[in-house]
Amino acid sequence: MFSGIVEEVGRVLKVEETGDGSRLVIEAPGILTDAQMGESISVCGTCLTVVAFDQRTFTVEAVQETLRCTTLGELKEGSKVNLEKALKVSDRLGGHMVTGHVDTVARIESITPEGFSKVYKFCLDSKWAPFFVKKGSVTVHGVSLTVVDCPDLDLDMTDISCKDQSQQNFWFTVALIPHTLEVTTLGSLTAGDLVNIETDVIARYLVRLVGESYLKNINKAGESVLIHGNEG
User: Fold this and answer.
1) Checking CA distances to 32, which of 128, 129, 134, 193 falls within 20 to 30 Å?
2) Strands 170-176 and 40-43
3) Residue 220 placed within a domain
4) What local confidence, expressed as pLDDT, does residue 226 receive?
5) Is 156 within a domain?
6) 149 plus 108 within the same structural domain
7) From the first residue on, what is the mean pLDDT of each consecutive set of 10 residues in the chain (232 residues)?
8) Neighbour tally for 33: CB within 10 Å
């Protein structure tokens, strides 16, 4: 379990292809003070296991399924990555509960300066819409963030500004303060870049508990309002 508070930005020193995935050697001396074999480290939001380490570097392995579902397959020598060690029971939960299991990949649609912050707009598949709510939590590339805006479930969830309407037609926004832009890799990203997304685990359990029937009832209720409204 993680909190989404990045501890260090590491640098990829080597990417080695293996038979069933990739082996990554990452330079990050600050996060290795009490490193242990087999412990978990979040790499851009993806929970990976340490298989080797020394005073300045550690090695993790990513299988093909992980590479397919995340942006880790795009990493190359020199790439910067957000890093966080797994939480201890005594640690503060500064962000929110993050599992390190990436749900999907989103595309940065736009980055807009707003005062001293920047508003990032992301587009992704609308099937993830039930797990987003205004002021709710989302993990972007391993960073715990608050959703500023997103469409309501009972409204049209698509947006003509999402260029890839066939697959990425749901959007949400977050606002990043200068500190977050400085101490994570998010500040170096540009429109069109892809990021790892983990939806709020509590939202996922709630939707599973309530079931899809609830979401269908929301849509039916919206249709009923429109029908009866037209009768008047």
Assistant:
1) 193
2) unpaired
3) no
4) 40
5) yes
6) yes
7) 95 95 96 92 98 96 96 97 87 80 97 97 94 96 97 63 67 97 98 97 85 62 45 43
8) 8
Are 4 and 84 in contact by the 8 Å Cβ rule? The answer is yes
User: Is residue 60 domain-shared with residue 118, that is, in the same domain?
Assistant: no
Which residue's structure tokens are 């990976």? 48
> Residue 230 falls within a domain, yes or no?
no
Same domain, 156 and 186: yes
Structure tokens at 193: 């870049």
Name the residue type at position 22: S
CATH number of 44's domain = 2.40.30.20
- One-letter amino acid for residue 152 of the chain: D
What is the phi/psi pair of residue 6, to 5°?
-65, 130
Rounded-to-integer distance, Cα 133 and Cα 156, Å = 15
Write phi, then psi, for 103 (nearest 5 degrees).
Answer: -85, -45
Its sign, for the CA torsion 143, 149, 153, 156, is negative
Q: Find the distance separating the first CA and the last CA of the chain, reported in whole Å.
A: 53
Could you tell me the two tokens for 149? 């805006």
152 by DSSP, 3-state: which?
Answer: coil
Encoding tokens for residue 179? 């500190």
- Express each pLDDT in 62-120 by its tens digit: 999 999 999 999 999 999 999 999 987 766 777 788 999 999 999 999 999 999 999 99
Domain boundaries, position 171:
104-210
Characterise 114 by phi-psi region: left (phi > 0), alpha (psi -120 to 50), beta (else). beta
In the chain, the number of structural domains is: 2
Q: 224: exposed, middle or buried (C-beta count within 10 Å: 0-12, 13-18, 19+)?
A: exposed
